[in-house]
Amino acid sequence: LLPTPLFPGLLLSLERKMKKEHHHHQNSQLLPPLKRRLILSRAAAVILVFSLGYVVGILTSSPRASVSSSPDTQLLLQLNTVPSPPNRPTDVCNDSPKEGKEEQDQLQQLQPPTTTKKRPQSASPPPPHDFFRFRTQCAPALPQDEILPTLLDRVYNGTSPYAGFPPAHAAGLLRKRRLRGWGSTAPVFRELIESVRPRTIVEVGTFLGASALHMANLTSGRLGALILCLDDFRGWPGFRRPPRANKADLFKDLADVNGDVTLMYQFMQNVAAAGEEGRVLPVPFSTAAGLAALCEWGVYGDLVEVDAGHDFHSAWQDINMAWAVLRPGGVMFGHDYHNGADNRGVRRAVDLFARSKGLRVRPNGQHWVLQPPKPHH
């Protein structure tokens, strides 16, 4: 069990020990039996300790388990590397025949190739990650009549943000009505509202409130849905500057007060001008913080719209966190399914989420719709 070079060292040490003892007992030609036994027992103990250490070292040097055995990692590998069977029907249905071929062609680009290159045996396993680890269980749902009071208490210290609005320092900076959105009045809004008949709507990303006020108009009357608008009301870096030199600056009229771009004030002014202060409420936090709070408080939406960040990671986070606050039987939808980013932005996040949950994506113009499967009876 011991390496060969270890024995000469032990024997040399033993020989020196015996010579030293012999020097102290010059009158005796041989060591006393008791001393000899003591020296030999010590040497045996040293050999035993080294042997045990060597064996333990061998046993503990076995390879560690590969991180690729993680269920999350395996799912990600399956979604990104496993080839689809030939002639597999797409998971996306399209209600628009005119756009069908173009969308099908774009979706084909997202499908993995029919053959994959075999991973070399020496390749390192993929690193572990939290790609799929989002909270899926939230607090028990609040009764409908407690949602608005709870939010006013938790976010605005029990008072309405519209009380005394606008404040004196901002009144002269606001336009009476300043709306701007993208796809904010698309037919998908009316279709889903008539189908779901929501009592609570959660909008993730609202900007100036164009789509929120359109949904408020569609739910006016006896439906009277409460609309919660999550946004940090900061816009995006450089949003005042036109993306191209030949395009007009659409937001140069929005005032900037010591770094405050006054988006929330203008949003509230738009809501007040529409007379919807009682049921369109800004929730002025980042989408992640706002959705986490709704989950913690038990606030769910019958209809959830996701239209905030357009990059993949922002959209992926928003979609996963928004799904947790979707009431059973509700519908989640969003914008920017077809844009310049396609498989690098919102569309990639939507498709990956749908495949990981076993859902279908239903494109509707520039919008996407996800609906949980109905339970079988």
TrEMBL record:
Quick one: where's region Disordered? 79-130
> Which InterPro entries would you find in this protein's record?
SAM-dependent_MTases_sf
* UniProt feature, compositional bias: Low complexity: 106-115
Domain of life assignment: Eukaryota
What name does UniProt use for this protein? Answer: Ethylene-responsive transcription factor ERF115
- Name of the gene: ERF115_0
